[in-house]
From TrEMBL:
Protein name according to UniProt: Dienelactone hydrolase family protein
InterPro entries (UniProt xref): AB_hydrolase_fold, Dienelactn_hydro, Dienelactone_hydrolase-like
Keywords: Hydrolase
KW Hydrolase (keyword) present: yes
Organism per entry: Streptomyces endophyticus
GO molecular function per UniProt: hydrolase activity
Amino acid sequence: MNIMLFHSAFGLRPAVEAAADRLRAAGHEVWTPDLFEGRTFDTVEEGMAFKDEIGKDELLKRAVLAAAPYSDRGLVYAGFSFGAATAQTLALGDDKAKGLLLLHGTSDIAEGVSVDELPVQLHVAEPDPFETDDWLTAWYLQMGRTGADVEVYRYAGAGHIYTDPDLPDYDEEAAEATWRVALGFLETL
């Protein structure tokens, strides 16, 4: 598979590159665009402030420009937290998308979006302060109405971005379970 992997609000950190390397080792081609142009952050608050400073439209433009040269190949869009929200937006707007792998995040769904059984897999902590139970229920129902084929995996007791070993939320057991399931998902596409 061809995978476009977007970073979280922490920026393009070593954990994102390590995830890309894990995916490459499984035989996938992976791109990791840097939407923050080299900036990384130590706290989610700093990253979110920088993200807001750049603005949603500019970040979406950067993401579209990064994916555009490869979209004809049929991309699997993937991302971490803020990057998952970005991946979701692009996947739902790309009729050649092969799949959507969401790690630690989701996004609003535009009115009238329709996909043809797009395979979607979400991995998220339980509970997650950014992905509440009510939000996830509504998101799941909305994604189903778009025509997506959605699977949701919850990880009790894990922190928000539990796959990044350099962050306090890291949970090795949940991270390894996530990668095992996600790699299996990618093999089905």
